[in-house]
Amino acid sequence: MTDPVIVKQGSSPVILGFPHTGTFVPPEIEARLNDNGRLLADTDWHVDRLYDGLLADATTVKATFHRYVIDANRDPSGASLYPGQNTTGLIPETDFDGKPIWNEGQESTEADIAARLEAFHAPYHAALAAEIARVKAEHGIAILYDCHSIRSHIPFLFEGKLPDFNIGTNLGITCAPEFEAAVEGVVAHAPGYNHAVNGRFKGGWTTRHYGQPATGVHAIQMELAQSTHLATEAPPFAYDEEKAGKLRRHLQDILERIERLSFSARM
Q1: What are phi and psi for residue 155, nearest 5 degrees?
Q2: Using alpha carbons only, what angle is made at residue 11 by residues 7 and 12, rounded to the nearest 5 degrees?
Q3: 3-state secondary structure (DSSP) of residue 145
């Protein structure tokens, strides 16, 4: 069986989380997906490639499993991140367009949820929590930067076109103000791009769960519109080298700024 999580340890105070870049679906689960579900359309396509090498000493924690197996960025209790709004759950029943992803009668059960929490969700978060503890012990501070992307037009989830950069700190709760300001300071001056802070995406369960600035752990989610780095937001979801190259310069600036800030914050 494929390991549910891949960790690359680094010496920086910055940790990059990748809960949604994985595409592994165990055969017994894949057999239950319908043709729409097997497209795995709601993957955070190429986000790990987008950030690769931008901060050489950053720790990375990547889920290998797809969010249709179980969503590593959802509350394990099943509580909604956005009560009253359309969203997808711990084990999604539909894709981001509200269309079913499972064969009729093959939707997830309570037993499925329990088994997948144990086999996939819990190991990912055990690894992430361990890296946060290690980094904080070394530096006195840990900065979790959670890396995401999503299609720029999804009427089921939001109106109109999503901003290019979407910063989520759960209304400023999950990190000290200077970290949010540092990230916004980069994207606000990135020519040709727009941004939002705590707009439609305020940070998922990962950001909200781990971001406790009073303890020295700061968490920020970055949700990128896929139009910023994909050739097309439809199959085959190809990576656009030119778009990505332009975007990577700003992402590198973000990571370098929060790393510098973390070094000064611990002094």
Answers
A1: -55, -30
A2: 100
A3: strand
**Predicted TM-score (pTM) of this structure:** 0.96
* Inter-helix orientation angle 241-265/177-187, to 10°: 150
> Which of 182, 145, 138, 132 has its CA nearest to residue 47?
145
Listed residue (16, 14, 20, 1) closest to 121, CA to CA: 20
Residues 7 and 5: their CA atoms lie apart, in Å, by 7
**Structure tokens, 142:** 């840990």
Nearest to 210 by CA among 80, 61, 82, 65: 61
pLDDT (tens digit, 9 = 90+) per residue, 16-29?
999 999 999 999 99
Cα Rg, the chain, nearest whole Å: 18
**Residue 130 token pair:** 């361990």
Q: What is the pLDDT of residues 109-142, one digit of tens each?
A: 999 999 999 999 999 999 999 999 999 999 999 9
